[in-house]
Amino acid sequence: MVKRLLMYSLISVVSYFAGVFCYLGALRLFYDQGMGSDMNLIWAWIGFPYFFFVVPLYAGIILFLRAIRRYSLILQTIVFLIPGFLAMGAAYFPYGLYLLMNPISKEASLFYCCYTATAILFSCGSWYTEKWLKP
């Protein structure tokens, strides 16, 4: 149980950093811009919704998929994408609601990259953890 908790904590932190770096990479690649002085805001805009909304939902999704015995990597990854897109609404409140109303905006595409990366990495990490630490 302790190993599993430590592994999921590590997966959460690593996937968070991967999401932030994908956000910054997409900003640089697609828009040829740097972050500048808003870097502290990005850590909070992505971090709070991720750790207090997305990670608990990921845990619930894993438990639900295990309960209905439909635990596959592809299904889990697809289902993990949904909370990430919903977290965009909380990304930088109250402006996050604008991202949900205008899903094609420049800011929304950056958050799509971020939360897609976190979903894929969290899914692969949790899949590996479940296979490695069979209950």
TrEMBL record:
Stretches that traverse the bilayer: 7-30, 42-65, 77-97, 109-129
Key words, A-Z: Membrane, Transmembrane, Transmembrane helix
Domain of life: Bacteria
Name assigned to this protein: Uncharacterized protein
Organism name: Cohnella pontilimi
